[in-house]
Amino acid sequence: MMKRIFTSILLPLIFIAFSNAQDADALLSKLSENAKTYDTIDATYTSKMVDVKSDFEETMNGHIQIDDKKFQLDLGEFVITSDGGTIWTYEKESNDCYIEDAEMLMEQGMDPSKIFTIWEDDFQNEWKGVSTIDGREYTQINLYPSGEDASEKPYHTIQMFIEESDLELVKLIVKGREGVDTEYLINTFKTGVNIPASTFLFSAPDFPGVTMIDNRI
Predict the structure, then answer these.
(1) Beta-ladder partners of 48
(2) How many domains does the structure of the chain reveal?
């Protein structure tokens, strides 16, 4: 269940070096250094999933709050919460909550807490130059999965669009191997905000009648 949700919605959230690779490495290094200064992150985004084969398109809004390895991701139909050790996925319609081991899912590359530093893990990069989005120019860097399990990833390319002056990721497009592409547009991005510790815990008493489904081994 969790793998399906993360794969289809958030390959959080989730990079071949050519002649300009040094520029890409330098910019990504700056992004990483900038990210290290964030105590907490509170961001909203709009995602659009396009299935070319079936001519299907779906748009949804997401809200993510991050504090180190802890996060809460509100996708509307689902709310995914983690204290860094456990992940709770609450499905509103069914009133079910699935409990997973965070370490196991993170080993599979499904870690929303790294959505703004995804380029640091098992990716090669390609500098693509300047791209225009809504009349504004951004630097585009493509990421390609590398390593022994690269061919097993459900995507083959991640396109990043970066505002160099602010060192911020503004748009991300995940190109799926099965013809399903997902575009993420960052709407708001705040750092250093006060996020209550309770945000990263799932409290069953707050959801009367909830069915807890423990999938941990």
Answers:
(1) 59, 183
(2) 1
CATH number at residue 64: 2.50.20.10
32-70 pLDDT, tens digit each? 888 888 889 999 999 888 997 888 889 989 999 999 889
Residue 85 DSSP symbol: S
Q: Encode pLDDT of 164-209 as tens digits.
A: 888 888 998 889 888 889 888 989 989 999 999 999 999 999 999 9
Q: DSSP string of 90-143?
A: EETTTTEEEEEEHHHHHHTT--GGGTTSGGGSSEEEEEEEEEEETTEEEEEEEE
Token couple for 39:
């105590």
| Secondary structure (3-state) at 193 | coil
Compute the distance between CA of residue 109 and CA of residue 174 in angstroms, rounded to an integer: 14
**Would you state the structure tokens that stand for residue 27, as one six-digit string?**
């910019």
**How buried is 162 (Cβ within 10 angstroms: 0-12 exposed, 13-18 middle, 19+ buried)?**
buried
pLDDT-derived band of residue 81, with 50, 70 and 90 as boundaries?
A: very high
Q: Is the distance from CB of 102 to CB of 84 less than 8 angstroms?
A: yes
Which residues form the domain of 174?
2-214
- Using alpha carbons, list the distances in angstroms from residue 67 to 12, 172, 173, 183, 195: 15, 21, 24, 24, 8
